[in-house]
Amino acid sequence: MPYRPTPFSVDYLPKTHHTLLHKFYRHHKSSMCITEQADAWVVRATEIIAGVCLSPVAEGFWLTSLFTAPAYRRQGIARLLINHLQDSYVDKPIWLFCHPQLEKFYCNLDFVTAHQLPEPLKSRLTRYQKNKTLIALCYHHS
């Protein structure tokens, strides 16, 4: 794939700066949140335009709180962010829960249906599915 310069940068957000991502979520009235143990990553133009959290779980990571500012959607920002995570966390699986309508998006990023989940995620998914339809997906660097 040819190199294409991008006006966006993907940056790890140190825990001391998690409040910046929290403010981004609140500014957009998003219910996304950051857990204390999560690694937070952001995409910046001149300001934060997208964010995601990756929390350690069992022998891998759980991807949560992916959110792109509405003005930047459908420009490949979420894909850029997830591809960066896939390149940065190569030795362990990454799980996520998503609404069924997002399955194709994640499958195009090499996520597959997670037939087995670590117990902490399995019980959480069961609890979440009482109120909404979610599917579990997993990515593992090949």
UniProtKB/TrEMBL annotation:
Protein name: GNAT family N-acetyltransferase
Pfam family, one: Acetyltransf_10
CDD domains the record matches: NAT_SF
Residues spanning the signal sequence: none
PROSITE patterns from the UniProt entry: GNAT
Organism: Denitrificimonas halotolerans
Domain N-acetyltransferase residue range list: 1-135
